[in-house]
Each structure stands twice: as structure tokens, then as C-alpha cells.
Amino acid sequence: MTSDAPSILAELTSLLSEGGIESASAEAATILSQALGTSRASLAFADVPAERAKQARSWALRRADTLEPLQYILGTAVSGRLDMAVGPGVFIPRPETELLVDWALRSMPATHDGGDAGLVVIDLCSGSGTIALEVAHAMPRAQVYAVEADPKALDWLRRNAASRAEAGDTPVTVCDADATDASLLRELDGRASAVLSNPPYVPSGADLPAEVAEHEPGIALFAGPEGTDVIERLVPVAARLLADGGIFACEHDDSNGAAVTEILGRHGGFGRVNQHRDLAGRPRFVTAVRVRESTENTR
């Protein structure tokens, strides 16, 4: 027995709306397309087998009853050009990070042959691996490292890295390490073309939506009273790893663009420090270029 997709969509939207989900219609379409294994664009003309409708209802009820993030329920999150496997214990990729990745891909220093061969890219606080794996997908000859210390996030990072390698992308080197460790990846000192990061950056007293505060890992969210504790410790690590002319990009809370700019300025080893806004016009990430001569001349 089958039902038409529009009627199932209406039912799912009602279930989600009753549970207080603001984007009920969009989430209903995502749930049903996932249940059918098809695109959202195909739903208008789709037939829904009874067992697929049952699965979709189950996901919608779970979302409405618990406010668990839909990405955890479905087991996947869209990350730019890729899909990341996600679940409890790992931060869910956000569209804002895609802007950082796009900037990095446009700004990566060229190698002697004008391609990505020889580029070394390091993703600090990698989480699910979205930054590292996006770069590896777009730059197949680059050497990409993903650094993560939290055991639960590491499980998802390794799973995603293995999946992308099976799909044909150049394997990413996964490092079980603290991204703020002063001795991290010493063998790469002064060699990195880019150091990129979406670290914990939420101020500890911030008021977050329930589905974030009650479900996503606090270790991936909070970074001290101002939200800059981790970034303060990341900057000297990035400076040590970067080659002269290498790029640094770091996502931050929308209240901290000026603070992160000040941190980089205080270090003294970076030039061309710029703030960037997200799609809503809020300050979202800061970029800079490593200038080793500046550091050497001030010592």
C-alpha cells in the first residue's frame, strides 16, 4: 500500500509543528526524502510505501518529542559539497563553516607548479572532519591533517575520513591530539600552507536553543566567559605551524570579531588580518596571513 508524498508531508509537518519545530515544513521534506532515499525536488510526484511512511513518522515524532537535532536522528549533516555522518557526541556542521572553507580554497598559497601538490593543510579542533574533508575533496594532492582530542568526536571523524577515502578522496591524516598543545605536529613546523579551525567559541553564559544546549557536546561549544579561551591558545600553535605567507582562518562567536582580531595583532606574527561576516551579516570568522619576518624583527 502506498500514499502520495504531499499527504505524508502534510502529516509530518503537522506533527513537527505541534512539537514546536519552527521550520516544520522544511524538516518534513528532509525527513521524507531521507526515508525514500530521494531528493526533496522529487517529492511532489513520489509514492510513499507504507513502511517508508512509518519510518518518516517515527523520525518526526522523535524530533517533536525530544527536540533532538534532526541531523542526529537521520545520522547525517550536509557539509558544503559533502555529507558528514553525525550523531550524539559530535558538533553538527553549520553553513557558516562553509564560508570559511570557501575562503580558504580561494586563498590557499599556490605551489611552484600552480596546483595543490605539496600543500599542507591542518584543521584544528576538527570535530566531524568537515573542514579537513572538504579541503581534501577539493584539493586531492594536498596533505591534510585533522586534529581532534575528544574521543566521541574522534569516532565520528575517523568514520567520515574512512568514508571519504573509500569514495576516492585522498586520505586525511587523523591526529588524536589537543589542538592547543604547544608541541603539536612539531614535524610540520613552518611547513603548513593553511591552518583552519572551527574551535569551541561560545561564551560560557550564553543562552542557547534547547536542541543545542541539551544535545550537542559542551566541550565543542563553550570556551570560557568570553568565548575566546581556546582561540587564545590556538593562535601560537597556528603561527608555529604556518609557513611564511601561509593562511589562518578561525571561526568565532558573532560577538568576538574584534577580540579575535586583537589576539592576532597582539601575537605579532600575522598580517592582513580581516573580519568576515556570515550569510546573516554577523561577524563570523577572522583570517590572517603568516608573516614570519614581522615576528623575527620584533624579538
From TrEMBL:
Enzyme class: transferase
InterPro entries named among the record's database cross-references: DNA_methylase_N6_adenine_CS (IPR002052), HemK-like (IPR004556), N5-glutamine_MTase (IPR050320), PrmC_N (IPR040758), RF_methyltr_PrmC (IPR019874), SAM-dependent_MTases_sf (IPR029063), Small_mtfrase_dom (IPR007848)
GO molecular function, one term: peptide chain release factor N(5)-glutamine methyltransferase activity
Domain Release factor glutamine methyltransferase N-terminal: 8-75
The protein's Enzyme Commission number: 2.1.1.297
Reaction(s) this enzyme catalyzes, per UniProt: L-glutaminyl-[peptide chain release factor] + S-adenosyl-L-methionine = N(5)-methyl-L-glutaminyl-[peptide chain release factor] + S-adenosyl-L-homocysteine + H(+)
Residue span(s) of domain Methyltransferase small: 120-203
Keyword rRNA processing: no
Gene3D superfamilies attached to this UniProt entry: DNA helicase RuvA subunit, C-terminal domain, Vaccinia Virus protein VP39
Record keywords, A-Z: Methyltransferase, S-adenosyl-L-methionine, Transferase
One BP term from GO: methylation
Record-given protein name: peptide chain release factor N(5)-glutamine methyltransferase
The species this protein was found in: Dietzia timorensis
Gene: prmC
